[in-house]
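Reopening this ticket.

The earlier resolution said the output was attached, but the attachment link was broken on my side. Pasting everything inline this time so it's all in one place.
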Amino acid sequence: MEENDILKIKQELRLKVWKIMEEARIVRFPGAQGRIPNFIGAERAAGKVARLEIWQKANIVKCNPDSPQQPLRKLALEKGKIVYMAVPRLTKNKCFIELHPSRVQGKYDRAASIKGAFELGKPVTPDLMRKPAIIVAGSVAVNIKGARIGKGGGFSDLEYAIAREFNLVSEETPIITTIHKLQLIEEEIPMTEHDIPVDFIITPDKIIKTEKSYNKPAGIIWKLLDKEKIKNIPILKELKNEK
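Inline output:
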């Protein structure tokens, strides 16, 4: 399948899911379009994650910065876990923020927000990060095979690829996503070699182990990155210059 066809199919699926969620009135402010949609029940989904043994054993979590996963970031901090949150769009050389439970002064809810993370967290480069035991990714849509669609920027895929380049994660590091049940779709989702699949899908009511039909990317696939993206993301520019 041609790249343009894949992009078209993914965008059509995004638009469909965003529309369904908005019509069902389960989307929180500021709406679904163009976003990892925040949904009613995100807190319950976070509570379901807490039942996972891999979550309970994890001392370090890498999480996306989007709103529907904020309850999960808060929960992780409350349980004494170190959280690494990506700087939105990876615009800084120190492209991750380290949130340490002992350093956020009990302000777990504040620290779990993007603004609060910058206030209470410590920006770090990937070489100074500790290895996360679990990865949390936001999603627009997923299916039972583990295929995932984000909002279209490819940043979750890049965050994972960067972590692989620094040997912080491996094929075995589990990736989970929290979603509303309307985001779990039956349609096929085309996956390319740079797309990250998910191992667990958690809704407010269910924990679903995926079929793990896809391998995770082994690192940054440079041939798939355009010059503009490399230019705009400092850590990519640095890694490219080292090659």
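Reporter confirms the inline version is readable. The chain has one domain: 3-242. Strands lie at 60-63, 82-86, 96-99, 122-124, 134-136, 141-142, 148-149, 175-178, 200-202, 207-209.
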